[in-house]
Amino acid sequence: MPKKYHLETTPTPARHLAPGPSSILDWEEGCRKCHRCVRWECPYGVYLHRDVDPFSLADTADSLCKHCFQCVQSCPMRLVNQAVNPEFTRLGDDYWTPDILSRIYYQSETGLIPVSGAGYGGPFTGPGFDAMWTDMSEIVRPTRDGIHGREYISTTVDLGRKPEFVRIEPGGGWSENGACFVESPLPFILGLPEGRRLSLPLISALAAAAEEMRAFCLIPLEYLKDLPDLAPEFTVLHLNPEQLNLDPAGFRGFPMVQTDDAPGVESWVKKVKNSNPGQIVIVRLPFGPACQERLVSLMGAGADILHLWADAHGLQPGLDGPDEKKPFLKDLIREVHLKLVDWSLRDRVTLLAGGGLALAEHTAKAIVCGADAVVLDLALWAAMECRLCPDCLERRACPVEIETVPLDWAVRRLKNLIGAWRNQLLEVLGAMGLREIRRLRGEVGRAMFFEQLEQESFAPIFGRRKGQSLK
Amino acid sequence: MSENSLKIVVRGCHNLAAYRRLFDRGDPGLPPEIEAGLVPCSSKVDAPHIIKFFEHGADALLVLACPPGVCHLVDGNDRAERRVAWAARRLAEIGIEPERVRFLKVEADQEEKIDEIIKEFSQTILELGPIPRNSRH
């Protein structure tokens, strides 16, 4: 049997306690000094370890409390209360909600899948990826291996140009015609978020985590000289437009090299392909109306992978107006994917999608919409405790000192998050009855789109929906 | 932050609309020595916590509470006032000036001037300077 891919997770406590959803108001006045105080009966020992966090000066009980309300209900004098923690509601923004961030913190800390408790009490649909439901019908009828078969589900993806056909040589041998691809055991590429602080410890942590997971990581060329222990086989070298005039032979040892789309980038792609025949060339470009024409041109020049990015909220970049009117990532990926299918070009290129991927299910949904793999960015920063402050670059001091993350700690946190997300992907694939993630690409039969359902099922009866439309 | 820099802690009830609005734009935009935070009620600021703030390097504390009679927890602001006064007395016993701890029930006419109140408090503390700390501790 081949060795199975496994991601080892290690519990890694946070360096800075994140605010929890509720805040304990523990009043001493009027206490009748019961022999056994409800606070010492806390099943999580929140009050036993209660202190003031030296860094944030916040009450540690607010971070450690699991909201079981035992103390609130049991105090005979009703002296313990809980209220919504205003510091929690300040986390993130309207897309990277406090709830999403606290789940990322939990997964990065424990490596476990977050469990939301007794049932789901939220709405059935919402904007963005919430308007897309995945088909989990097999979950009620487990396959012959049941849950124990999940170790045979593969999350391996091919990155690069796959062979369209095999050429049989006159002597009996064969060759893969123009193939140029690598396998990644994970459908995630560790990327870098736009507009956030970068530092050598952060880049080193990404590189070390990628090496341990045998996945790929984007490394800007300017950091290369400071990373003597970098494993080139897991590195995607990212070049700025100013670095395109460098001799491609200088980065021959890297399996993949990436740059941003710009006028004349085709000639650079050709130059790299001529200089380094086996090297995979990635061109990164924003989603938008012009990107489809650019895709054909870039593929013609020899680009093997196209990395399409949306903004941090998964919306099409460069558009003015309200967010509700902007196309969302799932529709943007579908549009590009279907265009390439129409042009019979889909299998000649790998599509990477990035931006707005905040939950494990977003990865599965992006792949259902047509991406081959995804590039993670802000979620990785959140794994290293980023609070997603809106003005990261202008702030005087990072509240979690992210620029100076300890290497081992950050690597464990990144592996925990990726491990938890991979476990969730395995659950999704298992529940769909799929054995490998490559088969999920473009498999819209495994998903339902709310707008489409509404149009097909309800529009003939009720006509046009009133009120605000979903993204 | 250098060893001699000030650390002024401000904690205010999130039901104080004018104070909460400071945070709506993300960073409250206050001077760097001010570490401002929101609490669900001013009574969240407990006496042991106040002592801990000073232990962890704070040079001053300003607690902003709702006006009398409008506390969402009925008497949370009154409880907070008593606790802050108690903690200030304990701190005075170890030589920390009582001016470094201020409790203020923000009246309706003061609401719009909340950042001025904070800046005026920080000016007072700037004049007092940081609390001299023994480097051995």
Task: Describe the protein.
The complex is a heterodimer of chains A (471) and B (137). Chain A is an alpha/beta fold. Chain A has two domains: 22-90, Alpha-Beta Plaits (2-Layer Sandwich); 152-455, Aldolase class I (TIM Barrel), CATH 3.20.20. Chain A has twelve helices and 16 strands. The mean pLDDT of chain A is 89. Chain B has 137 residues and is an alpha/beta fold. Chain B has one domain (8-128): 3-Layer(aba) Sandwich (Rossmann fold). Chain B has a four-stranded parallel beta sheet with strand order 2-1-3-4, sandwiched between helices. In chain B, strand 1, helix 1 (17-24) and strand 2 (34-39) form a beta-alpha-beta unit.
Give the biggest beta sheet of chain B. 4 strands, parallel
Q: What is the overall number of helices of chain B?
A: 4
Assembly annotation: heterodimer
- The helical percent of chain A reads 25-40%
**Strand composition percent of chain B:** 15-25%
- How are the strands of the biggest sheet of chain A laid out side by side? 8-9-10-11-12-13-14-15
Summarize the amount of helix of chain B as a percent range: 25-40%
The overall number of domains of chain A is: 2
- The structure class of chain B reads alpha/beta
CA-CA gap between termini of chain B: 18 Å
Q: What is the strand arrangement across the widest sheet of chain B?
A: 2-1-3-4
Give the name of the CATH architecture of chain B: 3-Layer(aba) Sandwich
> What is the general shape of chain B?
globular
Structural class of chain A: alpha/beta
Reading off the top of the CATH hierarchy, the class of the largest domain in chain A is best stated as Alpha Beta
